Automatic annotation (TrEMBL):
Its cofactor is heme. GO terms for biological process: ceramide biosynthetic process. Belongs to the cytochrome P450 family. It comes from Heterocephalus glaber. It is found in: Endoplasmic reticulum membrane; Microsome membrane. Gene3D superfamilies: Cytochrome P450 (1.10.630.10). This is Cytochrome P450 4F22 isoform X1. Residues 571-598 are annotated as: Disordered. The gene is LOC101706763.
Protein backbone atom coordinates (compact mmCIF):
# COMPACT_ATOMS: atom_id res chain seq x y z
CA UNK A 1 0.00 0.00 0.00
CA UNK A 2 1.37 3.39 -0.99
CA UNK A 3 2.07 6.01 1.73
CA UNK A 4 0.10 8.59 -0.23
CA UNK A 5 -3.06 6.46 -0.01
CA UNK A 6 -4.05 7.65 3.50
CA UNK A 7 -3.65 11.32 2.54
CA UNK A 8 -5.70 10.83 -0.66
CA UNK A 9 -8.56 9.08 1.21
CA UNK A 10 -8.58 11.85 3.81
CA UNK A 11 -8.57 14.51 1.08
CA UNK A 12 -11.51 12.83 -0.67
CA UNK A 13 -13.38 12.51 2.64
CA UNK A 14 -13.64 8.72 2.33
CA UNK A 15 -13.57 6.28 5.20
CA UNK A 16 -10.33 4.37 5.41
CA UNK A 17 -10.95 0.67 4.67
CA UNK A 18 -8.59 -2.02 3.45
CA UNK A 19 -10.44 -2.35 0.11
CA UNK A 20 -10.43 1.39 -0.59
CA UNK A 21 -6.78 1.69 0.34
CA UNK A 22 -5.76 -1.16 -1.98
CA UNK A 23 -8.02 0.13 -4.80
CA UNK A 24 -6.55 3.62 -4.62
CA UNK A 25 -3.03 2.18 -4.50
CA UNK A 26 -3.72 0.06 -7.59
CA UNK A 27 -5.16 3.08 -9.43
CA UNK A 28 -2.14 5.22 -8.58
CA UNK A 29 0.25 2.48 -9.63
CA UNK A 30 -1.53 2.05 -12.97
CA UNK A 31 -1.41 5.82 -13.57
CA UNK A 32 2.25 5.86 -12.67
CA UNK A 33 2.92 2.92 -15.00
CA UNK A 34 1.05 4.61 -17.88
CA UNK A 35 3.00 7.82 -17.32
CA UNK A 36 6.33 6.02 -17.43
CA UNK A 37 5.24 4.09 -20.51
CA UNK A 38 4.35 7.31 -22.31
CA UNK A 39 7.63 8.85 -21.23
CA UNK A 40 9.51 5.81 -22.51
CA UNK A 41 7.72 6.02 -25.87
CA UNK A 42 8.44 9.73 -26.08
CA UNK A 43 12.10 9.15 -25.29
CA UNK A 44 12.28 6.45 -27.95
CA UNK A 45 10.78 8.86 -30.53
CA UNK A 46 13.27 11.53 -29.48
CA UNK A 47 16.14 9.06 -29.69
CA UNK A 48 15.01 7.84 -33.14
CA UNK A 49 14.69 11.46 -34.31
CA UNK A 50 18.17 12.21 -32.94
CA UNK A 51 19.59 9.21 -34.80
CA UNK A 52 17.82 10.26 -38.01
CA UNK A 53 19.20 13.80 -37.70
CA UNK A 54 22.68 12.40 -37.10
CA UNK A 55 22.39 10.23 -40.23
CA UNK A 56 21.16 13.20 -42.26
CA UNK A 57 24.21 15.33 -41.42
CA UNK A 58 25.93 14.06 -44.56
CA UNK A 59 23.36 15.81 -46.79
CA UNK A 60 23.88 19.52 -47.61
CA UNK A 61 21.14 21.98 -46.76
CA UNK A 62 20.64 25.66 -47.54
CA UNK A 63 20.52 28.13 -44.62
CA UNK A 64 17.23 28.06 -42.70
CA UNK A 65 15.08 31.04 -41.82
CA UNK A 66 15.03 29.86 -38.20
CA UNK A 67 14.87 26.61 -36.25
CA UNK A 68 11.07 26.74 -35.89
CA UNK A 69 10.05 27.36 -39.51
CA UNK A 70 12.97 25.59 -41.14
CA UNK A 71 12.90 26.25 -44.89
CA UNK A 72 9.16 26.95 -45.02
CA UNK A 73 8.43 30.11 -46.97
CA UNK A 74 11.85 30.17 -48.64
CA UNK A 75 10.81 28.42 -51.85
CA UNK A 76 7.31 29.61 -52.63
CA UNK A 77 5.10 28.11 -55.38
CA UNK A 78 5.55 30.99 -57.80
CA UNK A 79 7.96 32.36 -60.38
CA UNK A 80 10.37 33.71 -57.78
CA UNK A 81 10.35 30.40 -55.92
CA UNK A 82 11.32 28.51 -59.08
CA UNK A 83 14.07 31.02 -59.79
CA UNK A 84 15.39 30.62 -56.23
CA UNK A 85 15.30 26.85 -56.69
CA UNK A 86 17.35 27.21 -59.89
CA UNK A 87 19.97 29.28 -58.02
CA UNK A 88 20.16 26.56 -55.39
CA UNK A 89 20.64 23.91 -58.09
CA UNK A 90 23.64 25.81 -59.39
CA UNK A 91 25.34 25.07 -56.03
CA UNK A 92 23.87 21.70 -54.96
CA UNK A 93 23.63 19.16 -57.77
CA UNK A 94 22.44 15.87 -56.30
CA UNK A 95 20.58 15.80 -52.96
CA UNK A 96 19.34 18.70 -50.84
CA UNK A 97 18.03 18.45 -47.27
CA UNK A 98 15.22 20.84 -46.38
CA UNK A 99 13.15 21.15 -43.21
CA UNK A 100 9.39 21.71 -43.16
CA UNK A 101 9.24 23.12 -39.65
CA UNK A 102 11.47 21.87 -36.80
CA UNK A 103 10.80 18.11 -37.00
CA UNK A 104 10.00 17.16 -40.63
CA UNK A 105 13.10 16.59 -42.79
CA UNK A 106 12.66 16.17 -46.55
CA UNK A 107 15.31 14.98 -49.00
CA UNK A 108 15.01 16.62 -52.43
CA UNK A 109 16.62 14.53 -55.17
CA UNK A 110 17.70 16.44 -58.30
CA UNK A 111 20.14 14.15 -60.13
CA UNK A 112 19.41 11.02 -62.22
CA UNK A 113 21.95 8.89 -60.34
CA UNK A 114 20.30 9.77 -57.03
CA UNK A 115 16.66 9.48 -58.05
CA UNK A 116 17.30 6.03 -59.54
CA UNK A 117 17.47 4.08 -56.22
CA UNK A 118 14.18 5.66 -55.11
CA UNK A 119 12.16 5.51 -58.33
CA UNK A 120 13.41 2.04 -59.27
CA UNK A 121 12.62 0.63 -55.81
CA UNK A 122 9.52 -1.50 -55.50
CA UNK A 123 6.23 0.10 -54.54
CA UNK A 124 6.55 -1.60 -51.14
CA UNK A 125 9.95 -0.05 -50.37
CA UNK A 126 9.24 3.45 -51.71
CA UNK A 127 5.45 3.98 -51.77
CA UNK A 128 3.86 7.33 -52.46
CA UNK A 129 3.66 9.44 -49.34
CA UNK A 130 0.20 9.91 -47.80
CA UNK A 131 1.04 13.37 -46.47
CA UNK A 132 1.14 14.91 -49.95
CA UNK A 133 -1.69 12.89 -51.54
CA UNK A 134 -4.24 12.41 -48.74
CA UNK A 135 -6.43 15.35 -49.82
CA UNK A 136 -7.24 13.50 -53.06
CA UNK A 137 -8.39 10.31 -51.33
CA UNK A 138 -12.11 11.16 -50.93
CA UNK A 139 -12.26 11.99 -54.64
CA UNK A 140 -10.00 9.38 -56.27
CA UNK A 141 -10.29 6.51 -53.80
CA UNK A 142 -7.86 3.60 -54.19
CA UNK A 143 -6.95 4.21 -57.82
CA UNK A 144 -3.44 3.71 -59.19
CA UNK A 145 -2.35 7.12 -57.97
CA UNK A 146 -3.11 6.44 -54.29
CA UNK A 147 -3.25 2.68 -53.77
CA UNK A 148 -0.38 0.65 -52.32
CA UNK A 149 0.96 -2.85 -51.96
CA UNK A 150 -0.81 -5.85 -53.47
CA UNK A 151 -3.84 -3.81 -54.50
CA UNK A 152 -1.70 -1.43 -56.52
CA UNK A 153 0.20 -4.32 -58.15
CA UNK A 154 -3.03 -6.10 -59.12
CA UNK A 155 -4.62 -2.95 -60.53
CA UNK A 156 -1.49 -2.04 -62.46
CA UNK A 157 -1.49 -5.46 -64.16
CA UNK A 158 -5.20 -5.21 -64.98
CA UNK A 159 -4.99 -1.66 -66.32
CA UNK A 160 -1.90 -2.10 -68.51
CA UNK A 161 -3.90 -3.61 -71.45
CA UNK A 162 -6.11 -0.49 -71.46
CA UNK A 163 -3.13 1.49 -72.76
CA UNK A 164 -1.96 -0.98 -75.39
CA UNK A 165 -1.43 0.52 -78.85
CA UNK A 166 -4.36 -1.49 -80.26
CA UNK A 167 -6.67 0.19 -77.73
CA UNK A 168 -5.16 3.66 -78.26
CA UNK A 169 -5.31 3.65 -82.08
CA UNK A 170 -9.10 4.19 -82.32
CA UNK A 171 -8.78 7.14 -79.92
CA UNK A 172 -7.03 9.07 -82.70
CA UNK A 173 -10.42 9.94 -84.17
CA UNK A 174 -11.45 11.39 -80.81
CA UNK A 175 -8.24 13.43 -80.56
CA UNK A 176 -8.83 14.80 -84.05
CA UNK A 177 -12.49 15.50 -83.36
CA UNK A 178 -11.92 17.34 -80.09
CA UNK A 179 -9.11 19.44 -81.55
CA UNK A 180 -11.36 20.24 -84.52
CA UNK A 181 -14.13 21.41 -82.21
CA UNK A 182 -11.73 23.82 -80.54
CA UNK A 183 -10.44 25.08 -83.90
CA UNK A 184 -13.79 25.29 -85.67
CA UNK A 185 -15.18 27.13 -82.69
CA UNK A 186 -12.24 29.47 -83.01
CA UNK A 187 -12.92 30.13 -86.67
CA UNK A 188 -16.70 30.23 -86.82
CA UNK A 189 -17.68 30.76 -83.21
CA UNK A 190 -20.77 28.49 -83.15
CA UNK A 191 -21.50 29.20 -79.48
CA UNK A 192 -24.94 28.94 -77.95
CA UNK A 193 -26.43 32.14 -76.62
CA UNK A 194 -27.44 32.59 -73.04
CA UNK A 195 -25.04 30.10 -71.47
CA UNK A 196 -24.02 31.27 -68.01
CA UNK A 197 -20.38 31.48 -67.06
CA UNK A 198 -19.23 29.42 -64.12
CA UNK A 199 -16.47 30.29 -61.68
CA UNK A 200 -15.05 27.47 -59.61
CA UNK A 201 -14.63 29.43 -56.38
CA UNK A 202 -16.67 32.02 -54.62
CA UNK A 203 -15.56 35.60 -55.06
CA UNK A 204 -13.73 36.90 -52.00
CA UNK A 205 -13.24 33.48 -50.43
CA UNK A 206 -9.47 33.85 -50.72
CA UNK A 207 -9.31 36.89 -48.43
CA UNK A 208 -6.56 36.58 -45.88
CA UNK A 209 -4.41 34.36 -48.09
CA UNK A 210 -1.15 35.69 -49.53
CA UNK A 211 -1.36 36.26 -53.29
CA UNK A 212 1.06 33.40 -53.94
CA UNK A 213 -1.17 30.95 -52.04
CA UNK A 214 -4.33 31.69 -54.00
CA UNK A 215 -5.28 29.07 -56.56
CA UNK A 216 -5.06 30.01 -60.21
CA UNK A 217 -8.44 31.23 -61.50
CA UNK A 218 -10.26 28.67 -63.63
CA UNK A 219 -13.33 30.01 -65.40
CA UNK A 220 -15.77 28.29 -67.67
CA UNK A 221 -15.08 28.74 -71.36
CA UNK A 222 -18.79 28.93 -72.05
CA UNK A 223 -18.88 32.37 -70.44
CA UNK A 224 -20.51 34.84 -72.90
CA UNK A 225 -17.41 37.01 -72.64
CA UNK A 226 -15.28 34.24 -74.08
CA UNK A 227 -17.89 33.42 -76.72
CA UNK A 228 -17.80 37.04 -77.82
CA UNK A 229 -14.01 37.05 -77.96
CA UNK A 230 -13.85 34.03 -80.24
CA UNK A 231 -16.51 35.36 -82.62
CA UNK A 232 -15.46 38.99 -82.64
CA UNK A 233 -11.71 38.67 -82.87
CA UNK A 234 -11.34 35.70 -85.17
CA UNK A 235 -14.55 36.37 -87.05
CA UNK A 236 -13.61 39.88 -88.13
CA UNK A 237 -9.92 40.42 -87.43
CA UNK A 238 -6.94 38.37 -88.54
CA UNK A 239 -5.31 37.97 -85.10
CA UNK A 240 -6.75 37.42 -81.63
CA UNK A 241 -5.22 36.69 -78.23
CA UNK A 242 -6.40 33.67 -76.22
CA UNK A 243 -5.42 31.99 -72.96
CA UNK A 244 -4.22 28.54 -74.00
CA UNK A 245 -4.66 26.99 -70.56
CA UNK A 246 -8.39 27.59 -70.46
CA UNK A 247 -9.21 26.42 -73.96
CA UNK A 248 -6.91 23.40 -74.01
CA UNK A 249 -8.10 22.29 -70.57
CA UNK A 250 -11.67 21.98 -71.84
CA UNK A 251 -10.46 20.26 -75.00
CA UNK A 252 -8.61 17.59 -72.98
CA UNK A 253 -11.61 17.11 -70.68
CA UNK A 254 -13.83 16.65 -73.73
CA UNK A 255 -11.39 14.12 -75.17
CA UNK A 256 -11.05 12.17 -71.92
CA UNK A 257 -14.78 11.98 -71.31
CA UNK A 258 -15.20 10.41 -74.76
CA UNK A 259 -12.27 8.00 -74.32
CA UNK A 260 -13.21 6.96 -70.78
CA UNK A 261 -17.02 6.91 -70.92
CA UNK A 262 -17.91 7.22 -74.66
CA UNK A 263 -19.90 10.24 -73.49
CA UNK A 264 -20.21 13.51 -75.38
CA UNK A 265 -21.05 16.38 -73.04
CA UNK A 266 -20.26 19.17 -75.54
CA UNK A 267 -18.23 20.69 -72.72
CA UNK A 268 -16.23 22.84 -75.12
CA UNK A 269 -19.43 24.71 -75.94
CA UNK A 270 -21.40 24.47 -72.71
CA UNK A 271 -20.33 23.41 -69.25
CA UNK A 272 -21.80 20.24 -67.71
CA UNK A 273 -22.18 19.60 -63.99
CA UNK A 274 -19.64 16.76 -64.19
CA UNK A 275 -16.93 18.84 -65.89
CA UNK A 276 -17.59 21.79 -63.56
CA UNK A 277 -17.20 19.45 -60.57
CA UNK A 278 -13.82 18.12 -61.79
CA UNK A 279 -12.48 21.64 -62.31
CA UNK A 280 -13.78 22.71 -58.91
CA UNK A 281 -12.28 19.70 -57.12
CA UNK A 282 -8.83 20.43 -58.58
CA UNK A 283 -9.00 24.04 -57.42
CA UNK A 284 -10.24 23.13 -53.94
CA UNK A 285 -7.46 20.59 -53.38
CA UNK A 286 -4.84 23.19 -54.28
CA UNK A 287 -6.38 25.78 -51.95
CA UNK A 288 -6.53 23.33 -49.06
CA UNK A 289 -2.75 22.84 -49.26
CA UNK A 290 -2.21 26.46 -48.20
CA UNK A 291 -4.64 26.51 -45.26
CA UNK A 292 -3.05 24.66 -42.37
CA UNK A 293 -6.23 24.51 -40.28
CA UNK A 294 -7.93 22.68 -43.18
CA UNK A 295 -5.46 19.81 -42.88
CA UNK A 296 -7.74 18.45 -40.14
CA UNK A 297 -10.69 16.71 -41.79
CA UNK A 298 -13.25 17.53 -39.10
CA UNK A 299 -12.49 21.25 -39.48
CA UNK A 300 -12.30 21.16 -43.28
CA UNK A 301 -15.64 19.45 -43.82
CA UNK A 302 -17.37 21.98 -41.55
CA UNK A 303 -16.04 24.83 -43.72
CA UNK A 304 -17.64 26.18 -46.91
CA UNK A 305 -14.82 24.71 -48.99
CA UNK A 306 -15.27 21.30 -47.38
CA UNK A 307 -19.01 21.26 -48.09
CA UNK A 308 -18.38 22.25 -51.71
CA UNK A 309 -15.74 19.52 -51.97
CA UNK A 310 -18.25 16.92 -50.75
CA UNK A 311 -20.91 18.12 -53.20
CA UNK A 312 -18.47 18.05 -56.13
CA UNK A 313 -17.30 14.55 -55.14
CA UNK A 314 -20.91 13.37 -55.04
CA UNK A 315 -21.54 14.71 -58.56
CA UNK A 316 -18.42 13.04 -59.99
CA UNK A 317 -19.02 9.73 -58.20
CA UNK A 318 -22.70 9.63 -59.18
CA UNK A 319 -21.90 10.14 -62.87
CA UNK A 320 -19.12 7.51 -62.92
CA UNK A 321 -21.11 4.95 -60.90
CA UNK A 322 -24.15 5.33 -63.12
CA UNK A 323 -22.15 4.66 -66.30
CA UNK A 324 -20.42 1.62 -64.74
CA UNK A 325 -23.63 0.09 -63.44
CA UNK A 326 -25.44 0.49 -66.78
CA UNK A 327 -22.54 -1.10 -68.65
CA UNK A 328 -22.22 -3.98 -66.18
CA UNK A 329 -25.94 -4.65 -66.40
CA UNK A 330 -25.75 -4.84 -70.20
CA UNK A 331 -22.67 -7.07 -69.96
CA UNK A 332 -24.39 -9.49 -67.56
CA UNK A 333 -27.56 -9.66 -69.66
CA UNK A 334 -25.84 -10.19 -73.01
CA UNK A 335 -22.70 -12.06 -72.02
CA UNK A 336 -19.19 -10.97 -72.91
CA UNK A 337 -19.18 -12.42 -76.45
CA UNK A 338 -22.49 -10.90 -77.53
CA UNK A 339 -21.69 -7.63 -75.77
CA UNK A 340 -18.43 -7.35 -77.71
CA UNK A 341 -20.28 -8.01 -80.97
CA UNK A 342 -22.51 -5.02 -80.28
CA UNK A 343 -19.30 -3.00 -79.95
CA UNK A 344 -18.06 -3.91 -83.43
CA UNK A 345 -17.22 -0.80 -85.40
CA UNK A 346 -16.89 1.19 -82.16
CA UNK A 347 -13.82 1.81 -80.04
CA UNK A 348 -13.67 0.11 -76.66
CA UNK A 349 -13.49 2.84 -74.06
CA UNK A 350 -11.70 2.76 -70.71
CA UNK A 351 -14.76 1.52 -68.79
CA UNK A 352 -15.27 -1.33 -71.30
CA UNK A 353 -11.69 -2.54 -70.91
CA UNK A 354 -11.88 -2.47 -67.10
CA UNK A 355 -15.21 -4.35 -67.04
CA UNK A 356 -13.68 -7.12 -69.13
CA UNK A 357 -10.41 -7.27 -67.15
CA UNK A 358 -9.69 -10.43 -65.12
CA UNK A 359 -6.71 -11.26 -62.92
CA UNK A 360 -4.81 -14.57 -62.75
CA UNK A 361 -7.55 -16.08 -60.56
CA UNK A 362 -10.33 -14.94 -62.90
CA UNK A 363 -11.52 -12.23 -60.51
CA UNK A 364 -12.86 -8.99 -61.91
CA UNK A 365 -12.62 -5.42 -60.65
CA UNK A 366 -15.45 -4.22 -58.44
CA UNK A 367 -17.60 -1.23 -59.39
CA UNK A 368 -15.83 0.79 -56.70
CA UNK A 369 -12.41 -0.16 -58.12
CA UNK A 370 -13.45 0.82 -61.65
CA UNK A 371 -14.86 4.11 -60.41
CA UNK A 372 -11.62 4.92 -58.62
CA UNK A 373 -9.55 4.20 -61.74
CA UNK A 374 -11.87 6.18 -64.02
CA UNK A 375 -11.86 9.18 -61.68
CA UNK A 376 -8.07 8.95 -61.36
CA UNK A 377 -7.62 8.89 -65.15
CA UNK A 378 -9.91 11.89 -65.61
CA UNK A 379 -8.00 13.84 -62.95
CA UNK A 380 -4.47 12.90 -64.01
CA UNK A 381 -5.17 12.96 -67.73
CA UNK A 382 -6.76 16.34 -68.29
CA UNK A 383 -4.62 18.62 -66.11
CA UNK A 384 -1.22 17.22 -67.01
CA UNK A 385 -1.94 17.05 -70.75
CA UNK A 386 -3.41 20.55 -70.86
CA UNK A 387 -0.37 21.90 -69.01
CA UNK A 388 2.05 20.12 -71.32
CA UNK A 389 0.20 21.24 -74.45
CA UNK A 390 -0.06 24.85 -73.33
CA UNK A 391 3.68 25.08 -72.66
CA UNK A 392 4.50 23.43 -76.01
CA UNK A 393 2.44 26.01 -77.88
CA UNK A 394 4.03 28.77 -75.79
CA UNK A 395 7.53 27.66 -76.76
CA UNK A 396 6.62 27.29 -80.43
CA UNK A 397 5.05 30.75 -80.37
CA UNK A 398 8.20 32.12 -78.75
CA UNK A 399 10.52 30.56 -81.31
CA UNK A 400 8.90 30.98 -84.76
CA UNK A 401 11.74 29.19 -86.59
CA UNK A 402 10.90 25.97 -84.72
CA UNK A 403 7.20 26.55 -85.24
CA UNK A 404 7.71 26.91 -88.99
CA UNK A 405 9.85 23.79 -89.19
CA UNK A 406 7.11 21.83 -87.39
CA UNK A 407 4.51 23.26 -89.75
CA UNK A 408 6.51 22.20 -92.81
CA UNK A 409 6.81 18.69 -91.39
CA UNK A 410 3.07 18.51 -90.73
CA UNK A 411 2.18 19.88 -94.17
CA UNK A 412 4.36 17.21 -95.75
CA UNK A 413 2.47 14.49 -93.86
CA UNK A 414 -0.94 15.97 -94.76
CA UNK A 415 -0.11 16.66 -98.41
CA UNK A 416 -2.80 15.51 -100.84
CA UNK A 417 -5.39 14.62 -98.19
CA UNK A 418 -8.96 15.80 -98.39
CA UNK A 419 -9.44 15.66 -94.63
CA UNK A 420 -7.13 17.36 -92.15
CA UNK A 421 -7.01 14.32 -89.91
CA UNK A 422 -4.01 12.54 -88.43
CA UNK A 423 -3.83 8.76 -88.24
CA UNK A 424 -1.86 6.62 -85.82
CA UNK A 425 0.91 5.82 -88.31
CA UNK A 426 1.37 9.55 -88.98
CA UNK A 427 2.73 10.10 -85.48
CA UNK A 428 6.04 8.46 -86.36
CA UNK A 429 6.33 10.85 -89.32
CA UNK A 430 6.55 13.86 -86.99
CA UNK A 431 10.04 13.52 -85.49
CA UNK A 432 10.79 17.23 -85.17
CA UNK A 433 7.37 18.00 -83.69
CA UNK A 434 7.99 15.21 -81.16
CA UNK A 435 11.41 16.71 -80.37
CA UNK A 436 9.76 20.07 -79.68
CA UNK A 437 7.19 18.45 -77.39
CA UNK A 438 9.85 16.55 -75.45
CA UNK A 439 12.02 19.63 -74.99
CA UNK A 440 9.02 21.59 -73.73
CA UNK A 441 8.18 18.80 -71.26
CA UNK A 442 11.80 18.97 -70.07
CA UNK A 443 11.74 22.73 -69.61
CA UNK A 444 8.19 22.91 -68.20
CA UNK A 445 7.30 19.49 -66.73
CA UNK A 446 3.55 19.38 -65.93
CA UNK A 447 4.24 17.62 -62.60
CA UNK A 448 7.21 19.30 -60.95
CA UNK A 449 7.81 16.71 -58.20
CA UNK A 450 6.65 13.38 -56.83
CA UNK A 451 7.03 12.17 -53.26
CA UNK A 452 8.05 8.80 -51.84
CA UNK A 453 8.35 7.62 -48.23
CA UNK A 454 11.15 5.12 -47.68
CA UNK A 455 10.01 2.09 -45.69
CA UNK A 456 13.60 0.78 -45.64
CA UNK A 457 17.07 2.32 -45.74
CA UNK A 458 18.02 3.12 -49.34
CA UNK A 459 21.67 3.32 -50.39
CA UNK A 460 22.73 6.08 -52.81
CA UNK A 461 25.52 5.67 -55.41
CA UNK A 462 28.09 7.55 -53.30
CA UNK A 463 27.46 5.35 -50.27
CA UNK A 464 25.25 7.73 -48.31
CA UNK A 465 22.08 6.23 -46.86
CA UNK A 466 18.54 7.58 -46.96
CA UNK A 467 17.20 6.56 -43.51
CA UNK A 468 14.00 4.57 -43.16
CA UNK A 469 10.89 6.74 -42.77
CA UNK A 470 12.27 9.78 -44.62
CA UNK A 471 10.08 11.47 -47.24
CA UNK A 472 11.95 11.91 -50.52
CA UNK A 473 10.84 14.56 -53.00
CA UNK A 474 11.93 13.57 -56.49
CA UNK A 475 12.18 16.98 -58.14
CA UNK A 476 11.39 16.48 -61.82
CA UNK A 477 11.81 20.21 -62.37
CA UNK A 478 15.14 20.19 -60.51
CA UNK A 479 16.44 17.22 -62.47
CA UNK A 480 15.41 18.76 -65.79
CA UNK A 481 17.20 22.01 -64.87
CA UNK A 482 20.28 20.47 -63.26
CA UNK A 483 23.26 22.19 -64.96
CA UNK A 484 25.45 19.09 -64.56
CA UNK A 485 22.90 17.06 -66.55
CA UNK A 486 21.47 19.64 -68.94
CA UNK A 487 23.95 22.38 -69.97
CA UNK A 488 22.18 25.69 -70.70
CA UNK A 489 19.05 24.24 -69.13
CA UNK A 490 17.10 27.51 -69.55
CA UNK A 491 17.51 27.36 -73.32
CA UNK A 492 14.71 25.81 -75.38
CA UNK A 493 16.61 23.55 -77.77
CA UNK A 494 14.64 20.67 -79.38
CA UNK A 495 17.85 19.24 -80.85
CA UNK A 496 18.66 17.80 -77.43
CA UNK A 497 16.22 15.03 -78.42
CA UNK A 498 17.41 14.53 -81.99
CA UNK A 499 17.24 10.74 -82.56
CA UNK A 500 19.98 11.04 -85.22
CA UNK A 501 22.36 12.62 -82.72
CA UNK A 502 21.69 10.93 -79.38
CA UNK A 503 23.34 12.32 -76.26
CA UNK A 504 24.94 10.12 -73.63
CA UNK A 505 22.55 10.83 -70.78
CA UNK A 506 20.98 8.71 -68.10
CA UNK A 507 17.45 7.51 -68.96
CA UNK A 508 16.40 9.18 -65.71
CA UNK A 509 17.67 12.59 -66.82
CA UNK A 510 14.30 13.08 -68.53
CA UNK A 511 11.32 11.97 -66.44
CA UNK A 512 8.23 14.09 -67.24
CA UNK A 513 6.09 10.98 -66.70
CA UNK A 514 8.10 9.82 -63.66
CA UNK A 515 9.94 6.47 -63.92
CA UNK A 516 10.22 3.05 -62.35
CA UNK A 517 7.35 0.76 -61.30
CA UNK A 518 5.03 3.70 -60.56
CA UNK A 519 5.60 5.69 -63.73
CA UNK A 520 2.65 7.21 -65.59
CA UNK A 521 0.67 4.40 -67.19
CA UNK A 522 -0.98 6.82 -69.63
CA UNK A 523 2.12 8.43 -71.14
CA UNK A 524 1.55 6.93 -74.62
CA UNK A 525 -2.02 8.25 -74.53
CA UNK A 526 -0.81 11.73 -73.51
CA UNK A 527 1.96 11.89 -76.12
CA UNK A 528 -0.40 10.83 -78.90
CA UNK A 529 -2.98 13.45 -77.92
CA UNK A 530 -0.35 16.17 -77.68
CA UNK A 531 1.10 15.39 -81.09
CA UNK A 532 -2.34 15.48 -82.72
CA UNK A 533 -3.30 18.76 -81.04
CA UNK A 534 0.02 20.46 -81.82
CA UNK A 535 0.02 19.25 -85.43
CA UNK A 536 -3.52 20.38 -86.24
CA UNK A 537 -3.06 23.67 -84.42
CA UNK A 538 0.09 24.57 -86.36
CA UNK A 539 -1.53 23.41 -89.59
CA UNK A 540 -4.37 25.91 -89.17
CA UNK A 541 -2.93 28.76 -87.12
CA UNK A 542 0.22 30.81 -86.72
CA UNK A 543 1.05 31.51 -83.09
CA UNK A 544 2.96 34.33 -81.46
CA UNK A 545 3.42 35.43 -77.85
CA UNK A 546 1.19 38.20 -76.55
CA UNK A 547 3.87 40.57 -75.27
CA UNK A 548 1.35 42.60 -73.30
CA UNK A 549 0.89 39.74 -70.80
CA UNK A 550 3.78 38.32 -68.80
CA UNK A 551 4.01 34.58 -68.30
CA UNK A 552 4.83 33.80 -64.68
CA UNK A 553 5.01 30.15 -63.66
CA UNK A 554 3.06 28.80 -60.72
CA UNK A 555 3.55 25.16 -59.61
CA UNK A 556 0.38 23.74 -58.07
CA UNK A 557 -0.83 20.18 -58.64
CA UNK A 558 0.56 20.87 -62.11
CA UNK A 559 2.76 23.62 -63.50
CA UNK A 560 0.36 26.46 -64.26
CA UNK A 561 0.83 30.20 -64.62
CA UNK A 562 -0.39 33.07 -62.48
CA UNK A 563 -2.43 34.69 -65.26
CA UNK A 564 -2.62 32.15 -68.05
CA UNK A 565 -0.59 31.70 -71.24
CA UNK A 566 -1.88 34.25 -73.72
CA UNK A 567 -0.93 33.70 -77.35
CA UNK A 568 -1.82 35.60 -80.49
CA UNK A 569 -3.61 33.28 -82.91
CA UNK A 570 -3.68 34.01 -86.65
CA UNK A 571 -5.76 31.72 -88.93
CA UNK A 572 -3.98 30.25 -91.94
CA UNK A 573 -5.69 29.41 -95.26
CA UNK A 574 -6.82 25.78 -95.48
CA UNK A 575 -4.39 23.28 -96.94
CA UNK A 576 -5.73 21.68 -100.14
CA UNK A 577 -5.19 21.29 -103.87
CA UNK A 578 -7.02 24.54 -104.67
CA UNK A 579 -5.77 26.54 -101.71
CA UNK A 580 -3.46 29.48 -102.35
CA UNK A 581 0.20 28.70 -101.64
CA UNK A 582 1.45 29.48 -98.15
CA UNK A 583 4.69 31.18 -97.33
CA UNK A 584 6.75 28.35 -95.97
CA UNK A 585 10.16 29.92 -95.98
CA UNK A 586 11.39 29.93 -92.42
CA UNK A 587 14.01 32.18 -90.93
CA UNK A 588 17.40 30.53 -90.43
CA UNK A 589 17.44 28.04 -87.58
CA UNK A 590 19.43 28.88 -84.51
CA UNK A 591 21.44 26.11 -82.94
CA UNK A 592 20.46 27.44 -79.53
CA UNK A 593 17.80 30.04 -78.89
CA UNK A 594 18.13 32.62 -76.13
CA UNK A 595 16.50 31.69 -72.82
CA UNK A 596 12.85 32.73 -72.39
CA UNK A 597 12.20 35.95 -70.50
CA UNK A 598 9.51 35.98 -67.84
Amino acid sequence: MLPITDHLLHFLGLEKTAFRAYAVSALLLSLLFSFFRLMLRFLRICWAFHNTCRRLHCFPQPPRNNWLMGHLGMYLPNEKGLQDEKKLLDKMHDVVLVWAGPVLPLLVLVHPDYIKPVLSASAAIAPKDDFFYSFLKPWLGDGLLLSKGDKWSRHRRLLTPAFHFDILKPYMKIFNQCTNIMHVSARAGPWEEGILGVTVWRSGSDKGLPEVCRPTPIHCLSCPLFQAKWRRHLGENSVASFDMFEHISLMTLDSLQKCVFSFNSNCQEKMSDYISAIIELSALVVRRQYRLHHYLNFIYYLSADGRRFRRACDIVHHFTTEVIQERRKALCQQGAEMWLKTKQGKALDFIDVLLLARDEDGKELSDEDIRAEADTFMFEGHDTTSSGLSWVLFNLAKYPEYQEKCREEIQEVMKGRELEELEWDDLTQLPFTTMCIKESLRQFPPVTLVSRRCTEDIKLPDGRIIPKGIICLVSIYGTHHNPTVWPDSKVYNPYRFDPDNPHQRSPLAYVPFSAGPRNCIGQSFAMAEMRVAVALTLLRFRLSVDRTRKVRRKPELILRTENGIWLNVEPLPPLGPEAPPRETQAPPLRAQAPPPKY
